[in-house]
Hints:
Layout: E1 5-9, E2 15-20, E3 27-29, E4 33-34, E5 39-40, E6 45-46, E7 51-52, E8 57-58, E9 63-64, E10 69-70, E11 75-76, E12 81-82, E13 87-88, E14 93-94, E15 99-100, E16 105-106, E17 111-112, E18 117-118, E19 123-124
Parallel strand pairs: 3-6, 4-7, 5-8, 6-9, 7-10, 8-11, 9-12, 10-13, 11-14, 12-15, 13-16, 14-17, 15-18, 16-19
Antiparallel strand pairs: 1-2, 2-3
Protein name: Transferase
Keywords: Transferase
GO molecular function: transferase activity
Amino acid sequence: MGKNYIDIENDRGETLRYRKHTNGRGLIANGAKVHPTAVVEAGAYVEPGVQIAAGAEVGRGAWIESDAVIGPEARIAPHAHIGSGAAIGAKAKIGVRAHVGTNARVAVGSLIRDDENVADGDAVATDPRGLHLAA
């Protein structure tokens, strides 16, 4: 039986240990909290301090940076990038190759479309079709 973790050296020369999540085999860093009902697909990386709630899904090749929060039943599509400290609301959907910046906020039920960017520190609320709502 193979080991259930992998050690990876970061840009600062520090070695981080990642375990393979039971639902999907994505890599979860020590210090991240992922609900057992969440799915983190193979090839996805979840960094230290991240919290992923019940029923959330993180697609293949997605990267969730340190201290981000992913709400219940949120969907992070393949190859999306969620910046450090970002918060994704419950049932929000983040599209393929979308980028949510550092400390950005995506409201409950919002849709960030494929290849769309949310700037660092922005707060975004959309309807389920991705149309931006007035602040």
